Amino acid sequence: MDKNYKYNKVELGVIICAVILIIAIIIYNTIFKGTVSGNSLSKKGKKNITSKYQTEKLIKAGIKKDIKKNKENKAPKNDSIIDYSKMGKDMEYASVYQMEMTPNDYMNKTVVLKGNYYSGVDSQGKSHNYCVITCQGGCCVQGVEFIMDERFKDDKFKDNQEIIVEGKFEIRDGEKGGKIIVLRDAIIKLK
Q1: What's the superkingdom here (predicted)?
Q2: Residues in contact with 18: Cβ distance below 8 Å, sequence separation at least 6, in sequence order
Q3: How many whole angstroms separate alpha carbon 134 and alpha carbon 136?
């Protein structure tokens, strides 16, 4: 690679989003799992899972507000509501990514997301609805399918319209194999 090579805007955007995602995952794992790269930060059963030094570093990074919300939104016990809609874009994106990586932690819980509405049609002609969450930079995207509650079946939404969607978390088989996360009996609010 040439030492004088300059990155274009797209390359820089992708690099920045990747770094943000990695930082968000590390923060998430620090808060909820109590570990980073296998180093134990807390013992099971303790309420305070971050040290004062770590908290000060996070505050200085300007994300204390999102972390407080994220602590409250850790996948709770059954029949709970997990509200990611009040988080910043990067933390919500990282949380949805975590839902996709550990879906069994969220089964039968009610999840609230803020994003943009998109619809699509599969190869069999069946229509699907999605809440699309992007990172702050707009380069990283996570889509969550939702199945509307009967009360909203006749409502028409425009693609890219900002919405808040609340539904019961489930997993279904994908069209080409694999598993897809779905919010069932979704209630939609316009943002």
Answers
A1: Bacteria
A2: 140
A3: 7
Residues 16-37: pLDDT tens digits? 877 787 777 777 666 555 433 3
The residue assigned the tokens 């609340």 is 166
Q: Which CATH number is associated with domain 9-190?
A: 2.40.50.140
> Is the pLDDT reported for residue 124 higher than 70?
yes
Find, among 129, 122, 133, the residue nearest to 159 by Cα. Answer: 129
178 token code pair:
């694999």
As given in the structure block, the two tokens for residue 88 are 């910043």
What are the structural domain ranges in the chain?
A: 9-190
C-alpha 124: how far from chain center: 28
Q: Residue 131 and residue 4: Cα distance in Å, rounded?
A: 41
Distance between CA atoms of 51 and 34, rounded to whole angstroms? 11
